[in-house]
Amino acid sequence: MIEACNFIVNTMAFVLSMCLIVTMKINLTPSSRRTTMLFKMCCNTQVLALFSIAAFVTNRTANSAVLIYISNIIFSLSLAVQIYLLSLYLLSLSYTNYIKECCSSLLHITITVSFISVCLIYFTTPLTKLLFYVDERNQFIRGPLYNILYLYCGILLFTSIIKLITNKQNISPRNTYLLLFLFTLETFIVVLQFINKDLQILAIASALANLFFFFMNHSYPYVKNTGCFGIEVFNSELTKLFERKKNFFIITVVINNYINLINHYGEGSNDLNLEISKILNIFNWKEIDLEAFYISDSRISFLYKRNNQDKSEKITKEINTYIKNIKNFNFEYKITVLKCPEYADKLWKIKKMQDIMEKKCAQNYYYFCSAANKEQFNRDEIITNELKTLENHSDDLLIYGQPIKETKNNEFTHAEILTRLNSVNFGIVFPDTYIPLAEKYSCIHKLSLILFEKVCSQINKLLQSNIKFNGFSINFASIELEDPAFAEEIIEIIERHKIPFNKIIIEITESTSIRYVNNVKNSVNILKNKGISFYLDDFGTGYSNLERILSLSFDVIKFDRSIIQKASENKKDFILLKSLVNTCKGVGLKILFEGIETDKEEKMAMDLDVDYLQGYKYSKPIQIDDVTSFFIDK
To answer: How far apart are CA 523 and CA 402, in angstroms?
Structure first.
């Protein structure tokens, strides 16, 4: 009966350990010290299970003293190693900085010395016969110190648990209770083995401990090659902290030039990924309750689970200093520090607050959240909600226009349509505030269609009044033209208002990168065949190149004011601008300078023979009905 029990129990321990080893190899990157220790414990448990059976069998059946000595010594040593690793693992849970604190602690030294002492006793057993010996009939006989291994197990486990209890402030309450339960279970198994010397069940105790620690600290897969958890675990931890109403800090590092670094060093660059992993692992558990998370290729976060403002500032400054001193890569980064739940009490609020902070943060520096950021968040939320329901109060979208001057005839022939949002809560809101929100929260197309309906209605009104003009230009985001249904929607609105297609000019903002170029090409070609013209807006400030411009068949290129202003003040910038203008004109494109404010800028534009001028020198944006006065004067 005992033989069958020992065989079944140890086989279960072996299989369970094998399953954990395979799981860890597939899902985990055992790069952290604690994970590596658990992996070693699982491997050692397999040895312990095998030699538990071997020692039991040889003690009863073997006729060779050598086999009995070997099997029992390996069994005893594997058990000593298991207890040693388990003790170190328990210590690692009670210390936040394992290397600096745990390895230098008196308890760690005591455990190591006692482990070495036990090993020496076992190695000298064939000579001293203190633990066991084999008599002349090849019978296994226990020596006077045979129970030292059980005493060693009990002392190490007991002292480790005492250390855990005294450092319980460093461990979550859940883990503390679970560890106490494990200690009770392990003690029961050791006592049972001590009472019945024929039982060999210590391997299953070790296997159960390994399983316990795996699910407590390692059941989530680490992100490959980082040794840290990913965004799923990060969100799970945040949810738990919110439920427990704990104050904590999120320190986030955003690498703004990650794409450029990838393009320079190559996709999947080991050196680049290794450097990011170093940042994670150097600060992971460096302080009490500081844990690192790999959010994405260009974003890593540190969760500091304490309500300690001074310590969070110290950690942030250390991270900033470390990244700033990296020589191998010229990181362009921003670090934001968000206190929760004071400034964000929901998962979805965290990302929005971080976006606001990143815009405020200086390059290669850090930024702490403030009450002003919370006010902006609340303001943005209200404006976003107004945008989402704008079709129910479309009159709140006010239409303005800025006339455009044709240099050939020295006359105002058309105008760019601009908008203002008449917010119920904040009054007049300018586009630089609500357009980014509309784009971010997928309201931009709804907003564009409401505007386009109003513009078509205004064009119809002007035509009925026999006012002569060439048309109105309306801005659309490139993401809108990526929709295959875009051209059909525009055509339907124009035909419904019964206006000529050539009165419509569509401006595409260059600051938005185009993802699906072929879709945009199709939309442009369909609408150009109907008579609609296309302008490229803000040329020189975004993503476009000459190849992209030519492929999309623009009619007019609008040069951004920032380029014009620099060229009017600097000779080198003027030479560059002149070259760009000549190149564009050389391929049949017309040129519009926007942001003209001074006589000097106007003269420079005329010297460069541009086709159209627009800016405050002629008119600031005015209500759409007032724009017609520029056409009437013609």
So the answer is: 26
